Amino acid sequence: MVPLQIGRIPSWTESFFASELAFAVLFGLCVLEGIMMLRFMPSELVVPSALALIGTSTTEVIAIVVIAVVGTTIGQFLLFSLVRCAGREYVLQKRWFPATESRLDRFDGWFDRWGAVAVAGSNTMLFVRGLLTIPAGLSEMNARSFVVLSALGSLSFQSILAGLYLVGGHLVV
């Protein structure tokens, strides 16, 4: 295992994490992650970086996880709403969206097979995190149900990342 490589974090982000704006920066990064626009930093490094740079007291860990869950859930809800209003083709045409049509077809299949619970499950998994937001936005899924399931999946994901960091203090990167 290799220690968390702070060098992979943009220097401006690192300096903000070390400032009095740390929690606001964390929130902003998490909203970007949720709407799938976080391109300058792997989403798997957001919470561990916050822990490394802000602190690991019980209060700080809880605050970091809560802010991360709220931020990513808000971002995913924005994407869910955009898809509901603009449609699948609109999102696929945008350069910021990280998936191809064939990959999104696969996620449509997951959503068809597992239903709404796939939203929470996918939010817990690396590399597919948040991609079921698109099929959910196109479905008849209730927005409130989406928010709850998105938040549960994000809570699971962020808690696992925080736990791994706290137990080992290292990440494989």
Topology of helices and strands:
Blueprint: E1 2-3, H1 11-17, H2 22-34, H3 46-54, H4 58-86, H5 88-93, H6 101-114, H7 117-124, H8 133-138, H9 143-168, E2 170-171
Antiparallel strand pairs: 1-2
Helix pairs in contact: 2-3, 2-4, 3-4, 4-9, 7-9
InterPro entries: DedA_domain, VTT_dom
Domain VTT: 46-162
Membrane topology: Multi-pass membrane protein
Describe the protein.
The structure is a single chain. With 173 residues, this protein is mostly helical. It has one domain. The chain contains nine helices and two strands; from the N terminus they run βαααααααααβ. It has helices at residues 11-17, 22-34, 46-54, 58-86, 88-93, 101-114, 117-124, 133-138, 143-168; strands at 2-3, 170-171. A two-stranded antiparallel ribbon has the order 1-2. α2 runs antiparallel to α3, α2 (22-34) runs parallel beside α4 (58-86) and α7 runs parallel beside α9. The longest helix has 29 residues, at 58-86. The model is unreliable at 1-6 (pLDDT under 50). It is found in: Cell membrane. Keywords: Cell membrane, Membrane, Transmembrane, Transmembrane helix. The chain crosses the membrane at residues 21-41, 61-83, 146-167. InterPro entries: DedA_domain (IPR051311), VTT_dom (IPR032816). Residues 46-162 form the VTT domain.
